[in-house]
Amino acid sequence: MKLRRLTAQIVGYAVRTIRLRARAAPKGTHSVFYPLLCGGLMLIMTVAVADENRELPPAPRAFIADMARKHAFEQNALIRLFQQVSPQPTILERIAKPAEAKPWHVYRKIFLTEARIQNGAVFWREHAQVLSWLQDRYGVPAEIIVAILGVETGYGQNTGGFGVLEALYTLAFEYPKRADFFRAELEAFLLLCREENVDPLQPKGSYAGAMGLPQFMPSSYRRYAVDFDGDGRRDIWRDANDAAASVANYFTAHGWRAGESITLPATVAGNGHGALLDGDLKPHHPWSALQAGGIQTTVDLALGTPVKLLALEQPDSVGYQLALHNFYVITRYNHSPLYAMAVYELGQAIKTRL
Fold first, then answer.
1. Angle of the 337-351 helix axis to the 142-153 helix axis, nearest 10
2. Phi-psi region of 230 (alpha: psi -120 to 50; beta: other; left: phi over 0)
3. Pick from 213, 202, 117: which is nearest to 157 by CA?
4. Domain at 59-93+158-253: CATH code
5. Which residues contact 275 (CB under 8 A, 6 or more apart)?
6. Where are the domains of the chain?
7. pLDDT, tens digit, for every residue of 83-104?
8. Do the beta carbons of residue 204 and residue 236 sit within 8 Å?
């Protein structure tokens, strides 16, 4: 087992180091020193072995049985695998405090930074030919592809330091609020590891189990990841072209409409717009209804165009936007209007620096 081998390596290093130190110790202290050393090292080994052989709780065991029944996984192998991970309180703390809970003017500052804009322009220049090809092939603007990678990981600078298996294990079995979702993602992760010949203990990602430059969840990887360069691997961790193509493919699969607007600035008059502010992310009010509610924009829209009114909290006021179909498609990546707005504004800011 990997944990046992790692522990043995650590213990071996410790023994060699302490022996060297002991040679320089005053005479007469070794009889006390070595028993303490051996006792401590034996304790480390005992804890490590006990951790590997611990009894799994009922929920993970039921999940393992289901994986064996549905996908022909070997149960003992999954038991041994799951014995090498454990629930992480840090992950539960992080998921309880998402950035999307912040007001817009605070959330915006996280992503609309000078460094992120400049680095986005650099990334675009370095991958201009591929981005142009992707825009033509998929219909998704290059600035949206680049902005997604910028918001998610700073163009690959921070793809996450959590073990994906441990993150998904924690959330699947210790986060009841979304247990079904994360158990499905854990299932998808184990399947993709088998399909792609990846050691499940190796991939790193976010506290939610998202992976690579575009931070795909395992189910999204299996459905939408693209091998752009044809090398036989859909490498969203190290290959920026694969990552960019995967983002474009994701949006196309979710209904991106080439050439259409994403969002438009709006102004409101009176109090008739209050009833139009609802929690539905999908544009579902006809533009004519918003006009009747005292809302105006600078672009002529067909009266039947489905739109959604967004209210974006500023420090001392509220700004308004009309979200259109492609805005909704961005929220399929992250179900937050703040996220979609940050992606749109970052993409526009990057485009001005080319």
1. 120
2. left
3. 213
4. 1.10.8.350
5. 293
6. 2-53, 59-93+158-253
7. 999 999 999 999 998 877 899 9
8. no
Contact 192, 198 (CB under 8 A): yes
* Helix ranges, the chain (H): 2-23, 30-52, 58-71, 75-82, 89-95, 104-111, 114-126, 128-138, 142-153, 164-174, 179-196, 218-224, 240-253, 287-292, 325-330, 337-351
- How much is the pTM? 0.84
Is residue 18 packed enough to be buried (19+ CB in 10 Å), middle (13-18) or exposed (0-12)?
middle
* Amino acid 271: pLDDT: 80
Catalytic: which of 143, 152, 166, 185? 152
Listing DSSP states for 227-258 in one string gives -TT-SS---TTT-HHHHHHHHHHHHHHTT--T
Using DSSP's 3-state secondary structure scheme, residue 282 falls into coil
152 is catalytic: yes
The 3-state DSSP class for residue 277 equals coil
End-to-end CA distance of the chain: 51
Residues 6+ positions from 338 with CB-CB distance below 8 Å = 100, 102, 104, 107, 108, 312
pLDDT-flagged residues of the chain (< 70): 1-53
Count of alpha carbons within 13 angstroms of residue 112, beta-carbon side: 18
The pLDDT assigned to 52 comes to 53
pLDDT at 44: 43
Residue with tokens 């070595």: 34
| Residue 323 φ/ψ, nearest 5 degrees | -85, 130
Q: Is 129 exposed, middle or buried (0-12, 13-18, 19+ CB in 10 A)?
A: exposed
Tokens of 74: 């070997």
3-state class (DSSP) for residue 170:
helix
